[in-house]
Amino acid sequence: MMNKKSKIVLVGGGSTWTPGILKAMTTHLKQFPLEKITLYDIDEERQKVIGEFAKILFKEEAPDVKVSYTTDEKEAYTDVDFVFCQMRTGGFEMRDKDEKIPLQHGVIGQETCGPGGFAYGLRSIRDMEKMVKSVRQFSPDAWILNYTNPAAIVALALDKIFPKEDKVLNICDQPVNLLRSFASLIDFDANDFEPVYFGLNHYGWFTHLYDQTGKDRMPEIKEIILNGGFRPVDAEQRDQSWLDTYAMVEDMLKDFPEYLPNTYLQYYLYPEYKLSKMDPNRTRTDEVREGRETKVFNECRRIVENGTAKDSSVVHNDAHGDMMVEVAASIAHNLRKTYVVMVRNNGIVSNLPNDSMVEVAASLGANGPHPYAVGEIDTFYKGLIESQHAYEKLTVEAYMEESYTKALQALTMNRTVVDAKKARKLLDALIEANKGYWPELN
Ligand SMILES: NC(=O)c1ccc[n+]([C@@H]2O[C@H](COP(=O)([O-])OP(=O)(O)OC[C@H]3O[C@@H](n4cnc5c(N)ncnc54)[C@H](O)[C@@H]3O)[C@@H](O)[C@H]2O)c1
Ligand SMILES: O=P(O)(O)OC[C@H]1O[C@H](O[C@H]2[C@H](O)[C@@H](O)[C@@H](O)O[C@@H]2CO)[C@H](O)[C@@H](O)[C@@H]1O
Ligand SMILES: [Mn+2]
Description:
- There is one protein chain.
- The protein contains 16 helices and 12 strands.
- By secondary structure, it is of the alpha/beta class.
- The protein has a domain of 216 residues: Rossmann fold (3-Layer(aba) Sandwich), CATH 3.40.50.720.
- The strands form 3 sheets. The protein has a 6-stranded parallel beta sheet with strand order 3-2-1-4-5-6, sandwiched between helices.
- Strand 11 and strand 12 form a beta hairpin.
- It is globular.
- The termini are far apart.
- The model has no long low-confidence stretch (mean pLDDT 97).
- Bound molecules: nicotinamide-adenine-dinucleotide (NAD), ligand LEZUNG72 and manganese (II) ion (MN).
- The site of manganese (II) ion has 5 residues, from loops.
- Nicotinamide-adenine-dinucleotide binds next to helix 4.
- Pfam families: Glyco_hydro_4, Glyco_hydro_4C.
- Belongs to the glycosyl hydrolase 4 family.
- Keywords: Glycosidase, Hydrolase, Manganese, Metal-binding, NAD.
């Protein structure tokens, strides 16, 4: 079975993350043998730079794998086993607005949380719906592995729009990235953790981190963080804003010592403090454009010019690429490894709505995710998650029903907004900024 070679298409082939994912593919060929890789993007220019780099990388590392790139949907989606999807509708130009418009209204400006995530969500759903329909037209049985953000809203929307789909899986790399960082504190291999995790995407908690002997290592990890703070395992590659974000885990742990939180909870638990640290004129998009985007595209151009990727330092493996490839391998070869993924609740967390898309640990094999039961959660977490789920659901309904009222309800529900007058002003500004991307809300 392991000899079966997979055929992949990477949607958003011109993404800043693509070179890292391609690199991870070259280092995982034994676990995940490949027949062909197609890169697909709507932006021809971005796609060409990364596509030419891909050809060189594979010529040097795995010449048997067929590599191509295209802006043609039919060519991209025909005869594939896996669709890796990581698109950004509106690009960094719109991410910039997602972050800066809320800040102009005195609200957190973030890619996936608060009004920024709401705006990005309403943009992503339309392109994601179109992608699923096109993939099904040309490759009815392909697995669609989605990373496109805001993954929480995308996951819920796809579940509502395609309720019978059982080969779409939404995933985030933040849990695995956190696991790697926790593991480094106790000199442990993150792959050996058996985690218990619950929540919504970018809105969850680890409750246990068992090792191979069955011992829960969480108490010891919490102690280390409370005494010495917390940094990402790849701290040397991180911008200051990510180091500040990881450092907030210590604050969250001091206030709520029960579980280890996802870093994104900082925006919901400390909106005023986080807002005071944000600069409305310079947000994460500026950092990414000047940093990762510039570096990745310059490096790919340099590699294409030199005709070799052998000396490249930018194209490294990280949690993101590794996880995308390992998750696909677990499905393709029925490895039944455990990953934290998004699935319809249906009783996994017994006191949360059945139709929420929860993020939990699941065994992942050829028949998809088999999630582990979590059971009942306590009032604090239940309350937080239920309000966030209501916000997500109203956002999806606003899209599906093209409803201004539901959109206003969604923003008012969000913990980073709360005030309805503020929500209305924000909504009107976001409608103006997202013309052509959002459905018209009536
Ligand atoms: N789930 C996670 O944990 C996780 C982790 C990292 C990145 N991401 C997501 O991955 C995506 C890419 O991030 P990035 O920072 O590299 O952005 P990026 O803008 O560099 O890349 C996105 C690419 O998608 C292309 N694109 C836009 N709309 C498209 C469409 N309809 N069809 C095909 N391609 C399309 C763009 O042209 C661009 O080249 C984002 O959605 C980001 O939020 C998710
Ligand atoms: O602000 P960005 O574009 O740098 O990142 C936004 C993404 O952040 C998380 O991803 C982490 C990822 O977990 C880690 O492995 C590493 O690759 O860094 C990324 C951030 O730099 C988050 O899970 C994603 O959803 C965000 O898109
Ligand atoms: Mn994520």
